[in-house]
Amino acid sequence: MDILQKIVQHKKREITLKKKLIPVQQLKGGDLFARPTHSLSGALKNSKSGVIAEFKRRSPSKSVINHHSTVENVATAYEKAGVCGMSVLTDSHFFGGSPEDLQIARASTNLPLLRKDFMIDEYQFYEARALGADVVLLIAAILDKEDIRKFTDLAHQLDLEVLLEVHNRAELEKSLLTDIDMIGVNNRNLKTFEVSLETSRELAPLIPDGIVKVSESGLSKVRAINELREMGYRGFLIGETFMATRDPGHQAAEFIKTLES
Ligand SMILES: O=P(O)(O)OC[C@@H](O)[C@@H](O)c1c[nH]c2ccccc12
User: Fold this and answer.
1) 50 vs 115: CA distance, rounded Å
2) Fewest 10 Å CB contacts: which of 121, 184, 203, 233?
3) Coiled-coil segments, which residues (predicted)?
4) At what angle do helices 99-108 and 122-131 cross, to 10 degrees?
5) Which positions are catalytic?
6) How large is the average pLDDT for residues 240-260?
7) Is the dihedral of CA 202, 115, 18, 158 positive or negative?
8) Ligand 1 atom with the shortest distance to the CA of 237
């Protein structure tokens, strides 16, 4: 079984348990459930840097990335640094995140917030909304066409935008049938963890103009971002480059200054 399959298997068990602990009806009654959401795609279209900065403690590929920063401090500092949006990992078992991380981020910043998790059940969309998310990630590698369509519709009904993640042509093709807000090309193969900007280069011309293009993972060089921008990418999802430092907010601020200069 590859890592993605393991994650999905674990996620299914987690969701079954959660549904018993907090029924959907209860999620719908939460304080944040009806708040007006922010548009990440809109923010990216108007942004000079396009940086979406991630809060990530650990990952299956790197184990520990950052165990010293708090979500509250990082969210505040990312906003001050001028990022366009923030991504918060809410998976606990493999990434050391939690739903509370998203709630704390929501309480700390007005940035558009992406709930970064492995979405495989409608329950998680209601949960994302209740936690204060503005955007959800859909990973084409673990969903079929029908799921992609169904989940995109549900996200939109809940006023959430969708960032649809692909890392090859077949995944992109099965995703294009739906009315998605943003396509994220993941430069990291989630099965082998190999990172290559080739994926972003290859898929750029295949993404229709109306969809905001985001390049994800393995981005640490301003030069690479400038190259991707020329190919039409408007968003750049960056985790480790910021999180694997003593002060992620400061690192993001320096990075954005160089990008915009
Ligand atoms: O830390 P990086 O290499 O900058 O990558 C960030 C982000 O793209 C990565 O965390 C990610 C992209 N897609 C995912 C799906 C699930 C978990 C994590 C991810």
Assistant:
1) 18
2) 121
3) none
4) 30
5) 54, 56, 116, 165, 186, 216-217
6) 97
7) negative
8) 8
Distance 30 CA to ligand 1 centre (A): 29
CA distances from 172 to 85, 135, 164, 197, 231 (A): 23, 19, 9, 16, 17
Which residues have CB under 8 Å from 239's CB, separation 6+? 53, 54, 55, 56, 65, 87, 217
Give the residue carrying structure tokens 């079984």.
1
- Testing ligand 1's pocket by substitution, the residue of 188, 192, 197, 215 carrying the most ligand atoms inside 8 A of its CB is 188
List the CATH number of the domain containing 47: 3.20.20.70
Task: Provide the percentage of residues in the chain whose pLDDT is more than 90.
Answer: 91
Domain count, the chain: 1
* pLDDT for res 191: 77
CA-wise closest residue to 54 among 184, 204, 238: 238
Tokens describing residue 95: 């990434």
Q: Ligand 1 atom closest to Cα of 220?
A: 4
What's the ipTM?
0.98
